[in-house]
Amino acid sequence: MTGLPLRPVRLLCELTAVLGIGALLMLGGCATPPKPPPTANEALPVALRASQDEVLQEVMTTHGDETYICRRTPVPADPLGALSAAKTSRATTSGVRSDPTQLLWAPFGSEAILVDAGGESVGTVAPGHYFLSYDGSYVKAATSAESQVGANALTWARYTAGYDAAPRPGSGRFADISSIQRIDTSGGLPPQPGCELEGSRLLVPYAATYMFYRPKGVAPIASSTDSTGL
């Protein structure tokens, strides 16, 4: 049995090489682009910046849901239309007193997974501004400032740690957190402010970057799982 002529074989090899290079180029073009660095503290609105007595301990990202509950809310006062609003609220055409309230989506809190710089899931965000680490430490924070940076995304915010806890004194990722910034948000807002069924819930996907700060002079504390080997 005779082999293929030299020229067809050479053409086959050249074609294979071209296809191989093309495949590599396609793979390179589909590669995930690197994540942009988070917005620097100095570039944030003044009210959201960390204090001079704090240092950045850790940066985490998250993808999760912002939860809303449909609640009855009083209609806000309108000075320009106060008289007409009063007449409308006293009676309708049928003689029945109208309800001066409206159903709106009220924010309940965030539910999301916290991911560290190494891409590992290390904790969660829970409603009530709880930041929970898998090592047992957690932070209960309070909102100290907010800024509506993007029109179609959750506010950027600064939280002050009102309480933090650790599984043992001096251990845990969140043992000495003093404040947290939520920045670079996307999503998380309801499609419309009004709702129809009182008490119903709405989950809206969101993403954000969280910056965790500790007081100056306090050494960073490794996760308890690092020290115990658990």
Low-confidence stretches: 15-32, 81-93, 223-230
Report the sheet with the most strands, covering strand number, pairing sense and barrel closure: 8 strands, antiparallel, barrel
Task: List how many beta strands DSSP finds.
Answer: 8
Question: What structural category do the secondary elements indicate?
Answer: alpha+beta
Number of helices: 3
Query: Helix and strand string, N-terminal first?
Result: HEHEEEEEEEH
Strand order of the largest sheet: 1-2-3-4-5-6-7-8
Tell me the radius of gyration.
27 Å
Could you give a short description of this structure?
The protein has 230 residues and is α+β, with helices and mostly antiparallel strands.
Features:
230 residues, alpha+beta, 8 strands, disordered C terminus, DUF3455 domain-containing protein
Could you explain the architecture of this structure?
By secondary structure, the chain is α+β, with helices and mostly antiparallel strands. The chain has a domain at 53-74 and 99-220. It has helices spanning 6-30, 82-90, 224-228, and strands spanning 54-74, 101-115, 121-126, 130-133, 138-147, 156-165, 179-187, 201-215. It has an eight-stranded antiparallel barrel. Strand 5 and strand 6 (156-165) form a beta hairpin. The longest helix has 25 residues, at 6-30. It is globular, with a radius of gyration of 27 Å. The protein starts with 5 loop residues before the first helix and ends with a helix. It comes from Paraburkholderia phenazinium. It holds the Pfam family DUF3455. InterPro entries: DUF3455 (IPR021851). This is DUF3455 domain-containing protein.
